[in-house]
Amino acid sequence: MGLWKLFVVALMPVVKVLLITAVGVFLAIERVDILGMGARKHLNNLVFYVLNPALVGSNLAKFITLKSLVMLWFMPLSVLITFIAGSALGWLLIKITRAPYRLRGLILGCCAAGNLGNMPLIIIPAVCEEKDSPFGDANICNMHGLAYATLSMAIGSIYMWLYVYNVVRIYSSTASDETKPDAIPEGLESASEITQGPKLFLKEPSINVGVENFELDRAVSKGKAKVPFPENIKQGFQKVLDKLNLKRVLSPSINGAIVGFIVGTIPPFRKALIGGSAPLHVLEDSAYSVGESAITITTLIVGSNLLKGFRGSKVPISVIIGIMAVRYIFLPILGVGVVKCAVHLGAVSSDPLYKFVLLLQFALPPAINIGTMTQLFGSGEAEFSVIMLWTYASASVSVTLWSAFFMWLIK
């Protein structure tokens, strides 16, 4: 197949995403106002708590088995490499551009986390259904492609909420703390002084009192120093758990992934729920039907959020260009090297579709869930909208070109 035909095959899925995104932009304009701020908030909650977990869980249960999980063991490592390399490049970008502190968590998240869920689930089936697809029979390609894309989405969700969520949370909370007044201007009395009146010193503090306080402080410090060693470990471990915020780590999507892995890989559950002859197959079919709508609705939300990007925000142009360079130049080049080395070492099977998915993971735009995180913390929503506007607009060209090159490379 010639390079031009590969380009056309790669272009069709991207055009599909752009068309759905354009509908989202149209529905969000003031004259239509169907996807206004309130509607987006409710849809985000619906996607976060219902649709994404159903999509991840039902797809994993349907397409992932214990045998396929063993065969695809390299994919979690590949996705981890994208997060580590993206974080390193993002930190380098922060140092070069001297980005404001409030944007650092957003920059690291956009460079580290690609859209490993919706984009592959749209691109791969569309590529399989093209007449000139290099991946053979459309039905087999679609079945295997959905398994690869679903595993990619599940792994991406786990890394997102374990790592990116905490990075965005730490920088958002620190940035909000910096905006709070930490001192009272000179000449302005505090509320307690106004309500309580002037302070009256009934007795001058003596030297003996100071000595007693000093001895008391020494006793307290000694008591703290004598805390048993296992207790120190316990306290340190508790602090780490508090920082990680396990309630958010075990997000609905991750819970759905856990359920999907259990159903897909444990034979008794699989026989009871998966397949037309399974006695409880209606449960899996219902979850799959609910999850299918997640892709379209999330893409519409992306389009409606892009509208805020047209209004502009205080994001340096160097930061936007840097994020696009990381996601569309440096990471894809790194991905080619990683996959080539994996094939050479025998860590990746000869399936060209599997290699294509691994390569595609390095060339995707920033994850949409970062926008959900900024909405949860109430910080960086406008800035992320601007970043999304430019990265997703350029993705129409970048993802198409890289997809065509990847298909030519593995052919």
UniProtKB/TrEMBL annotation:
The chain crosses the membrane at residues 6-26, 70-94, 106-126, 146-165, 249-267, 319-347, 353-377, 389-410. The keyword Plastid does not apply. InterPro entries: Mem_transp_PIN-like, PILS1/3/4/5/7. GO terms for biological process: auxin-activated signaling pathway; endoplasmic reticulum to cytosol auxin transport. Its main location: endoplasmic reticulum. Pfam families: Mem_trans. Belongs to the auxin efflux carrier (TC 2.A.69.2) family. This is Protein PIN-LIKES 3. It comes from Salix purpurea (Purple osier willow). The lineage of its organism: Eukaryota, Viridiplantae, Streptophyta, Embryophyta, Tracheophyta.
